[in-house]
Structure formats: structure tokens, C-alpha cells
Amino acid sequence: MPESEHAHLDQLLSRLVEETISQDDLVVLETLLDGDVDAQERYLHYLELHKDLKDAVGNQKGLLNREANMIALKDRRRLSVPGWIGAVAAVVLLGLALFHLWTASGEPEKMILTIADCNGVLEWTGQGGKTDRSLSAGDALSGGTLEVTAANSWAELVFSDGTKVWTSGPSIVTFSEGAEGKRIHLRQGELSFDVTPQLSGYPLLLQTPSAEAKVLGTQFNVTANNVATRLAVHEGLVQVTRLVDQKTQDVPANHHIVAALERRTSFVALPRGEPVTSWECDLRYDVRQGYWRPGAEWRLGSLDAETHLFRGDFGKRRNPILLHSVVVSPSAPNRTPVLLTEGARLRVRGRLDRSCKVALGFGTRRARGVLSGKYNLSRYIEVGEGVEGRFEVELDLGDIPRMKTRFPASAIGQELGWIWIQTVREDAGLEVTSVDLIDRHGD
């Protein structure tokens, strides 16, 4: 066979294996193979390359060898071309199908998690690198990374043993499970856990940029960023290691601990304080989303809104919405819970370049720390020229409706989780200069 025809033959063989070959191309292939020993040998060489797939599908090795030997024997005779083309193609296709069914380790992907419920912008990246933005309740997941990108997004995930994990945005967390147990890596954000008893010697292992925690069965919350991890235990016991110096502390129920990259910070488990009913946000340290701008002379320090895309519930919106958000949460060193009470008010001060509609909302937790509810409303804020865009909004918590009917109708009696302030679509230069929760006895 002339060398110029080899490329053409290879193209036809590729189409045959991929089952995209046309009837006309099949006639051409038969013509090239019929009576041409060189072409038939090239064909068998092509088969041998694909036959190497048997190494990835162990238990099919015998079948592939038997089929290949039969074809090799038939090649010693002049065959009816359509007949042995079909036989060889069937073997190759079988190998390809099995190859895609199995992972590189020779085992099928193991589903380790199920999405029990979710809302908002979620992005899942599997171990193969494929990204899925169409997650919904009931989906089963193998190991991979979940990114919860928006402040009003959240997900509840359940392992096969009943261990539950809640995460709310913005957060990035990786899940895996193998012979050594469950592994969770929280790069940033917040998680709540309800861990069923784990086998002795196989604890759930949680990793953050500054700490590692071993859990055999407990309920706890953890918040992490690039420099510090805050962990509060509600039931059971959690062993926490500070990575900067490998010091270890046991954190019992109703205690909390901070593990930071700065060694001079305290690394001691302390009792979780009694709830407070009012709270003044420290913008610099309580920020979860937004950019800190230090004050200068007449200008107060502030958080500038961070821009991100909202792709709709479960990421299915065709035309994403541009959001500009500031998100804050109580993160005082003593991790004192903030209890929402009857008559409490949320007050936000800030600045806008122009009058526009602003969305304000907050998330809550039950006393044991898991996600309980989310509440949100929008207000049109007018700013005058004489006040340089400054605004103040004060809302009674009872006037802010729940986002889903599954959430409690009232936030009263729950603990404050986080607060978001955002503009939708338009960038109005949102800056937040203070956020306060004022109880009924406050000013």
C-alpha cells in the first residue's frame, strides 16, 4: 500500500471504531483491505493498539485475548471483509466502553455523597476536572470540590453513613472518602457538621489552611480563611491541631477554639459564652465577602462590594445576574452566639454612588449550629447630593420574610449566622461602613 493511502486508511479505521463511518466509507475500506496484505497488517496493528485497553479492565483480559487470537487466525486466510471487520470492531468497541466505565485505578467511581437540599449558585468539580453547575436535590456525587459562590446560596450533603454537612456561601470545600475514612478540606468559608459515630481508628479528618481536626462523632461548626480557623463544638469531642506548630487541643462540647497561623494568638479551648442579643460588626475581621478599605481622615473604614455572578437556583439560569455583595458574620474571639430576639432591629450604614434598590438578608442557625433559615428583602434607597451618597437602613427582623417555606416563619429564637447587603445587576458603588444588631432595649 502506498504511504499516501495509510493516512486515509487510518481515518477510516478511526471512524469505524467510533461508529461514525458511513456506508460509502465502508465500501472504500473494504476495497483497501481486500487482497492487500499490507493494509490488513496495518489494520491488525491498529487493533493491537486498542487491545492494550485490556490492562485497564482486568477481568476482561481473557475475553479480549481470545477474540484477538481468533481474528489473528482468521487473518491467515482471505476472509469476507465485512465479516471480520465487524468482529474486530466489536472487540475494540467493547474495550473502549469498558475503559470509560472504569477509572484509571481499575475501579468504578464510588458515589460518597448525596445532595439532600440546596439553593442558589453551586459549582461541583469532580476528580476528573469536569464542572457541573446544574446540581439539584437527590444528586449523587463522587469525590470532588464544591464551590458555593453567593451569599444566599447553601447546600446540605449527606454521606452514606448518615453524616451530614451544611455549607453556605461563599465557601470552597473538597470531599473524599477512601480506605482511611472521610476527608474534607475547607479552603474558605463555613461548614456545620452532624457526624455519626465513625469506626475506631478511622475518624473524619477535616483540614483547613491553618488547622486539622479529627472527629469520631459530634456536632460542630467551623469557619476558615487563609490565616485562621474558628471551631465551635456543640456535642461530643473534636481534636484540633494547629498546623503552624503542630500543637493539639481537645475541644469538648460547648467550647470553641481558634487556630491561627500567627503563633502568638491563643490556642486554648474556651467555654462558649452565653448568647448576646446585640452585636456591632467589626468590618475588618468579620468580613466574609467584600474588600476592606481603611479609613483616612474624614472617611470611615468600609467594605467595598465584591462582584460575582448569580446563575440562578441550581445554576440553571441561562443569563447570569451580576451581583455586588458585602457579607459579614459574627466572629468575635470568644465566639459568643448572637441570639435573635423579639423586637430586634438590623441597622446598616453605608454609601452609594446613586439611588438604587438594595437587597438585605441574613442566615440563621439552630442552637446546635446547623443551618436553620434564610431571610431577605429589597429596599429602594434614595441618596441625596448633600450627604455624599451616605445612607442608613434600619429594619425590624420581623419585617424580613423567609426565602423558602421550609424555613421557620420567624427568625426569633435562632442564632445569627451571617448578613448580606448587595445590589443586583447595577454597580452602584456600594460601600458598607457599619452593621449592627440592636435589641429592643438598644438605641
Provide a concise account of the structure shown:
This protein has 443 residues and is of the alpha+beta class.
The first-level CATH class of the largest domain is given as Mainly Beta
Strand count, sense and closure of the main sheet? 16 strands, mixed
CATH architectural name of the largest domain: Sandwich
Helix content: 10-25%
Low-confidence stretches: 50-106
Structural class: alpha+beta
Give the tally of structural domains.
Answer: 3
Average pLDDT, all residues = 78
Kindly provide the radius of gyration, computed on alpha-carbon positions and rounded to a whole number of angstroms. 30 Å
β-strand percent reads 35-45%
Report the span from N to C terminus: 94 Å
Number of helices: 6
- At the third CATH level, what is the topology name of the largest domain? Jelly Rolls
The general outline is: globular
Chain oligomer state:
single chain
Number-wise, the strands total: 28
Question: Secondary-structure map with pairings?
Answer:
Elements lengths: L2 H15 L5 H11 L3 H15 L9 H15 L5 H21 L11 E7 L2 E5 L4 E2 L7 E2 L2 E5 L5 E6 L4 E15 L2 E14 L9 E4 L3 E5 L3 E6 L3 E8 L1 E6 L4 E6 L2 E6 L9 E2 L7 E2 L2 H4 E3 L1 E3 L8 E3 L1 E5 L10 E8 L16 E7 L4 E10 L5 E11 L8 E7 L18 E10 L6 E8 L5
Parallel strand pairs: 8-9
Antiparallel strand pairs: 1-4, 1-6, 2-3, 2-5, 5-7, 6-7, 7-8, 8-11, 9-10, 10-13, 11-12, 12-15, 13-14, 15-16, 17-28, 18-22, 19-20, 20-28, 21-22, 22-27, 23-26, 23-28, 24-25, 24-27
Helix pairs in contact: 1-2, 1-3, 3-4, 4-5
